[in-house]
Specification:
The chain is an alpha/beta fold and 410 residues long. The protein is built from 13 helices and 16 strands. The N terminus and C terminus are likely disordered.
Length: 410
C-alpha cells in the first residue's frame, strides 16, 4: 500500500460508498477479513450464517475466515443460541484485547493521548496542558505518553498495538495571534512533519487527519446518534471546524480540508461580514471572560463542568447559534444534506442549549428553495477528536473504509 502525504494509505479504493459484498475468489482473503470484521463491529455480534447471508460469501469461505480471525485473537465466540432446527447458532464478536489503538489530539490549549481497545473502550489516557503547542513539546509528550500507555498493558498484549492516529489543526501558523503565541514558536509548525517524526520513532504505523474531520469520523465510528447518510458536522473547539459525510462516509477532499467550515463567511450581530470562526469558537468565549475580568481556566481544565458567568455564556451561545445557523444554510445551498450535527468541547447541557438555539435561529432565516435539515446533537463531546484519531489506525488496519469504491474486482 502506498502512503499518502497526510499519512493515510492508498488502497486504490477511494470513491463512492461500497456495497458490503465479498468475493469467493482466491486471493481476496484480506478484503473478506476486513469485510467480516466491519460487519461484526457494526452489529456487535453475528453468526457465520448471518455473515454469509449479508456478504454473499459461501458458508465454507466464511468458516475459513472466521476460524483464522479467531485464531489470530481478533474474534471471540459467544454462547450458542439454541431453540432452532439444526445446530445451534454461535454468535461471534470482536475480542476486546484483539487489537489496541493510540489516538493523539493536538489542541491549542492541551494535548491528549488515549489508548483504545478493539471495542473502542478507553483503557488509559494522558493529558498535558499548554498555553500553545510547539512541535518539540508535542513530540516529547506523544513519545512519553505512548510508552507509558503501552507499558500499562500486559506484556503479551503490547505487540497488539496496531497504530497511532493524530488529530491536529491544519495550518496552525495561520492563527498565532488568536492563540496568543509568539509567532516564531507557532511558525515552527510550517517546517514540522509530526506524523513522519512519530512514524520513524514508533514501531507501528502513524496516520494523521484534520482535527475536526477526525471528530466527525469519531461520531461515525463510536457515536450513538442516529445519523442520516448525508450530513454536515460542526465541532466547536478553541476554533470551530467541521466535517462532511456523504453516503455514510467521511469526505475529506483532495487536501484533507473539506468541511473547513470555520472559514465560512457569516454576518455578525452588527451586520459586518466575518468568518464563522470569529463568532462560534470557544476562543471567543475565552476572550469575553477575560475582558470581564474573569478566569477562562474552567473552559479548558474541566470541559464537562463549566462554572462560568451566566450572562457571558448566554451571550456567546446566542451569537454562536445564529452564526452556525447561517453556516448551515450556506452548506445546504451547496449540498443537499439531511442534517447538521453539532458537537464540541463543552458540557452536554451547554451543547444541548447550543442545538436548541441554533434550531430557533435557523427557523428565523430565509431558506426558500432549500429543504430544512434536522439538527442533531453529537454524542462524544470533548473526547471526539481523540477518539477520531484512534479510529484512523482501527479503520486503516482492520475495517473497510465506507468511502471505498466497490470492493475488490471479481
Amino acid at each position: 500500500m502506498q502512503r499518502l502525504p497526510n499519512g493515510q494509505t492508498d488502497k486504490g479504493t477511494q470513491g463512492a460508498a461500497i456495497a458490503m459484498r465479498g468475493t469467493n475468489q482466491s486471493g481476496m482473503r484480506a478484503w473478506n477479513e476486513r469485510l467480516v470484521l466491519t460487519l461484526v463491529r457494526t452489529h456487535k455480534a453475528l453468526s457465520k450464517a448471518e455473515i454469509s447471508r449479508q456478504t454473499g460469501l459461501s458458508a465454507q469461505t466464511v468458516s475459513v475466515i472466521m476460524r483464522a480471525l479467531e485464531q489470530d485473537g481478533l474474534l471471540q465466540r459467544g454462547e450458542p443460541v439454541r431453540g432452532r432446527v439444526g445446530q445451534p447458532s454461535v454468535p461471534m464478536s470482536l475480542a476486546s484485547d484483539g487489537a489496541f489503538f493510540l489516538g493523539l489530539k493536538i489542541g491549542r490549549r492541551s494535548c491528549e493521548l488515549a489508548l483504545l481497545d478493539f471495542h473502542g473502550v478507553v483503557r488509559g489516557r494522558r493529558v498535558r496542558r499548554h498555553m500553545w503547542p510547539t512541535p518539540a513539546s508535542v513530540l516529547d509528550f506523544a513519545l512519553l505518553a505512548s510508552s507509558e500507555l503501552i507499558e500499562s498493558l500486559a506484556i503479551d498484549l503490547q505487540a497488539r498495538v496496531a497504530g497511532l492516529g493524530i488529530a491536529t489543526p491544519f495550518r496552525m501558523w495561520d492563527w498565532a495571534a488568536d492563540i496568543g503565541a509568539p509567532e516564531e514558536e507557532i511558525t515552527a509548525w510550517r517546517d514540522c512533519d509530526i506524523r513522519s517524526d512519530l512514524d520513524h520513532a514508533l514501531p507501528f504505523p502513524v496516520l494523521l487527519q484534520n482535527d475536526a474531520n477526525a471528530a466527525c469520523g469519531a461520531e461515525l465510528v463510536f457515536g450513538s446518534a442516529q445519523l442520516p447518510t448525508d450530513f454536515v458536522y460542526f465541532y466547536v473547539g478553541f476554533f470551530i471546524g467541521g466535517g462532511i459525510v456523504l453516503n455514510g462516509a467521511l469526505f475529506t477532499g483532495r487536501n484533507g480540508n473539506a468541511g473547513a467550515l470555520g472559514s465560512m463567511p457569516v454576518h455578525a450581530p452588527d451586520g459586518t461580514r466575518v468568518q464563522l470562526i470569529d463568532l462560534a469558537s470557544i476562543s471567543v468565549l475565552e476572550r469575553a471572560l477575560i475582558d470581564r475580568g474573569e478566569s477562562a481556566e474552567p473552559l479548558w481544565s474541566d470541559p464537562l463542568n463549566w462554572a462560568l458567568d451566566a450572562d457571558v455564556l448566554d451571550t456567546w451561545l446566542e451569537t454562536a447559534a445564529e452564526a452556525i445557523a447561517q453556516a448551515t444554510v450556506a452548506s445546504l445551498s451547496v449540498m443537499d444534506f439531511d442534517a447538521a450535527v453539532i458537537d464540541g468541547w463543552m458540557p452536554p447541557s451547554v451543547r444541548s442549549q447550543l442545538v436548541i438555539r441554533t434550531k430557533a435561529a435557523l427557523a428565523r432565516l430565509d431558506i426558500a428553495g432549500l429543504e430544512p435539515p434536522a439538527l442533531i446533537e453529537g454524542t462524544l463531546g470533548p473526547d471526539a477528536r481523540t477518539l477520531g484519531a484512534a479510529a484512523l489506525p482501527l479503520t486503516d488496519r482492520y475495517m473497510i473504509d465506507r468511502a471505498a469504491q466497490n470492493g475488490p474486482a471479481d
